[in-house]
Amino acid sequence: MKDAALQSYLESIISPERLNRFDEVLSNRTNYITVVMEDLYHMHNASAVIRSCEVFGIQNVHVVENEFAKDLDKKIAMGAQKWVDLNTHETTMDCIEKLRSEDYSIIATTPHNDANTIREFKITGKTALLFGTEKEGLSEVAMKEADGFLKIPMVGFTESLNVSVAAAIILQDLTEKLRISSFNWELSPEEKKIKKLDWTKKSIKNIDKIIARFLSDN
User: Fold this and answer.
1) Cβ distance 8 to 33 under 8 Å?
2) Domain hosting residue 218, numbered range
3) How many folded domains does the chain comprise?
4) How much is the pLDDT for 46?
5) Which of 55, 89, 149, 189 would give a disulfide with 95, using CB separation of 3.0 to 4.6 Å?
């Protein structure tokens, strides 16, 4: 009951236009597709991938490599890290096991010839997309554990794209397919409520003091 009162109080501080924007964005958010970044040592790449995830409505992003996950380039992410949920994992296997326990299929992105192109690829259930470094690609563990493979068809001399560009192309295509599908891809009402409160808090200056004052008065 107090949580509902707190949410109502905080929402009274935010403009109606802002709250409507939250609702609009949340209506397109999904956990049906998630993204895993494996050992992206260049933080501008990781930050750019997170920005693409936010733009295309991916709510949860997974990073394998705790050390580097702490140094996201806020300038390149353009504030996207405020609106998505970042999950860190010490090893690729830890991440894959966690996702499998949540019924995700593990799809490795790779330029190899035996991979499906994005045109051929069909979403059959909850999907986790794994992205690796441009030079080395995904680890042997990721490739061995993958349930399927996905690639972007290329017809030039260059054999790979920048990982952030590849992520943007794939996410634009798959999220568009997802939204016209019959899958129950949207966040649940409870997930939307929790996330709206989180975003509301992040939009208010001195939020800790405001919440402390509310709790002392109630």
Assistant:
1) no
2) 188-218
3) 2
4) 82
5) 89
